[in-house]
Amino acid sequence: MRIYIAYRYSANNVIDVLQNIGKAIRVGHKVAQIKNVFPFIPHLDCLVAMQEPALPLEYYYNCSIAYLEVCDAMLLVDPYDLIISRGVLKEFEYCEEKGKPVFYGISQLKEWLGYGSKNI
Hints:
Mean pLDDT: 94
Helix content: 40-55%
Structural class: alpha/beta
Strand content: 5-15%
Number of strands: 4
Largest sheet: 4 strands, parallel
Number of helices: 6
Distance between the termini: 14 Å
Order of helices and strands: EHEHHEHHEH
Shape: globular
Low-confidence stretches: none
């Protein structure tokens, strides 16, 4: 199962952006430890974003949706992002429109997969 890791990216300063990237990676790493589950972490496109010339912001929104299309479900790391993150809100709305499952935590994902609280 392919799981899209949805978490805020942007912030008011570079340190917070890096912390957001780090949190998404840590959550993705935890998801990767679940048997037969493969996370997609869109925050890793930060490596592309560091290139010159910079791509327009809309490219990243479109890229995220393109990857979300091939994912089976989305893991929403922080529901507060639906209020503060334009990108996460777009991703959530896409899942709602397409009927893709949205999980509000790793434990909910594991339960849906039938693993309960076991670390499989």
